Hints:
By secondary structure, the chain is an alpha+beta fold. Strands 2, 3, 4, 5, 10, 19 and 20 form a seven-stranded mixed β-sheet that branches.
Amino acid sequence: MKQENRRNIFFRYGVIVFAILLLSMRIVYKLLDNTVISAHHWNEKAMKAYSNIDTIVPVRGDILACDGSVLATNVYSYVVRMDFTVPLFKEELFRKSLPALSDSMAKYFPRRSAAQWRERLGSQLNLPEDKRITYFPVINKVTQDEVELIKSFPFFCEKKKYTGLYSDKVLERARPYGDMAKRSIGTLTSCNSRILHGYYGLELALDSLLVGKPGITKPMILTKSVANWTDVPARNGYNVHTTIDVGMQDLLESTLERELNACAAEWGSAVLMEVNTGDIKAISNLEISTRPGGGYIESMNRAVMGFEPGSVVKTLSMLIALEDGIVRNLNEAIPIDNGYWKYRGGKIQDHIKEAAVPVRRVLEYSSNIAMAKIILRRFEDNPGTFYSRVKSLGFLEPMNVGIAGERKPRFDSLPDNSQGKRSLASQSYGYTTEISPLYTASLYNAIANGGAYVRPRLVKRIEGDGVDSTLDVTYIRPRICSESNAAILRDMLKEVVWGDKGTAKSLRSDKVRIGGKTGTARRIIDGKYVPQYRYAFCGMFPIEEPRYTCMVLIAYPTQNHFSAGSNSGRVVKEVAEGLYARGYLGNHPDYKEGTGGRGVHVAPTYYASDTDGGGAIVHERMGLSGKKRVIKTPAPLSGSGVPDVAGLSLREAVARIEKSGYCVSASGSGHVASQSPAPGTAARHGSNVNLILTD
Length: 695
C-alpha cells in the first residue's frame, strides 16, 4: 500500500516537472524568437509605434475691438460625465444618495430643478447593465472650480472607481459681449475635427490668419520611459484687431432693436462708418426669432447682401450728373409733369404734384421723374455707358473688408432698345439694380469725405508670432468727385432733412444736424412687386463737418412707422444724438466756457457734500474757468429724527442716514431731491427712508 502511494506521488511530481519543463522550453523559445529569430519584425513594430505622429492643435487667435476689448477668444470648459459600467460602481449607494445629490445639483446648478436632476441622473438605473453608457453627460460648460465642487457632492465624493465620475476638457470660442456684432465677428464650425475653422463672418474670412499652423509631436524613447517630443512646434493664430468700437456697437444695436420692436419689422441692418478712415465702428444685423418670444436676434449678415436700394441711389445719379456736367445750373427747373410721366411704354410717378423741380431740390423732393430725365440726357442714346460710368467710380469693385459673403452691386449693362432705356430710367432712381447697405454707406462716406473714396475697413491690425502689422487706410479711388461737387451734394442731402419739403423732416435735431437720403423699395415675390416695403436711410453727421456715415435698412414693418424717415431715419437720428452725448462729434462734453459752437454748456451744478470745498477742488483740478453753482449742504439736525439729506449724492445721503440708524431705498439718479419721511420726523430706528434722486 505504501509502495503504491509512493508510486502515485512520484507520478504526480513527474507530471508537474514535465509541465514546468515544457513551459520553460516555451519561454526560452519565445525569448529566442523575439530577440533573434523574429527580432526584425518586432523592431519594425516598435519603430512604427514610436514613429506615430500626432498633431499639436494651435491656439486660435483672438478677435479684438479697436480699444483692445476682446470680442472673440478661446475659453476652456469641462463636461462632467459618469461611467455606469465601471466594475466597482456602487449602485445601491448611488440610489440612496440620489435625493441629496439632486438637491446639491439644483442648488449650485439651477439649470434644472431637484426633481429634474433626480430624473436625469437616475435615468440610467432603469436600464439593464449592458445597455448603460460609459460617457453619460451629467453637465457641460462648467469651470474647473465647478468640477471640484461637483466632486464634493454626495456619492460623487467617493473614489472614482466607485462612482465612474470623470471630466473632459473642451476648448470653446467665447464672445464676452454675447451676440454683439455676432454675424460680422462670426462663429466656428461644429465638426469632429480637433482644429475648428470659421463658419461665417471674420472667423471665416480671416480663418487662415486666426487658425494658426498645427505642430507635430511623436514619441521619444528615454532611459526609463517614453515621452512625447515636439518635432515641429505649433504656431498660434494671429490676433486680429478690428475697427469695432464696443460703445458705438452697443448704441447702434440697441437703437436698431428698439425701432424694430416699435414697427414690428422682419429684419434690420445697420452700418456706422468713420468718414476719414472708412473704419466700420459698428455693424448690426437683427432678425425676428422664429422661437416664440425670442425677440430680435443676430441673423444673416444682410449688410453685405444686395437689395434694390430705392431712392438712396439718386445720390449716385446726381453725383454723376454734377461731375459730368449734365446739369450745371442748380436752379434749372426740371419738368415733372405734375408727378406722372409716360416714357417708352412705361410710367414714372412722383409723390410731388408740381410742374417742375429745381435741380438743387431733386433729392429733397426725391423726384423719380426729375432724376430719370437728368440721367437720360446723357445716357439715353447708349444706355450701356451708364454702367461703364458707375464702374469707373470703383463702385462695382470688391471691397474685401473681411466679412464673408460680401457681394458686389449688380448694375446691368443695358441694351440700346426701348427696354434698355426704360431700365436706365429705373436704375437712376433705385430699381432694377441691387446694392448692399455697406456699398451704399461707402458711397455716402465718399461724399462726406470731400469726394475721397476711402475703402471700408473692418480689420486695422494683425499681431502675433513676431508679427505686428497695421493695415493702412486705402482708397478705392483717390477721388470720385470734386470737393466743390461733394459740398453741393452735402447741401442737397442736408435739405432732405432741413428743407421745407424734405422727405426726412422728422429727423431734425437741436443737438446735431443730419443730412442724408431716404429710400423705399418694394418686395418681389415670384417676380412681381408686392405692397411690402424696405425702408432705407443713409445719413452723415454733423452735416457741416461730417465725422460719421450711418446706413440703416429696415424690412417689411407691420405697424406704426411706415416711412424711411420715421423708422430707418429715426435710428440714424438716435445714433447721432447718442454719439453727440458721448462727445464723439467734435463737441466738448465738459463745462469749460468758451469752447465755441454747439459744445458750450451752462455752468455745472455740484452736488452738496459733507466734504468742505469739494466743488472748488473739482473746479480747479479740471481747469474750469467759468462760474459754478453749488447746492448748499443741509445742516445736521440738532435733535433726533430723520436727517436732512437734500442735495447730497446717494453715497453721502446713505452714509448720513445709516449713521442715524435708518435704512435707505432710492430711485432715480443724481442728487437727492426729496425724501420720505421728511427731515426731523421721529421715526423708529431701523425703519426705511425713501429717497427720490434727480439730475
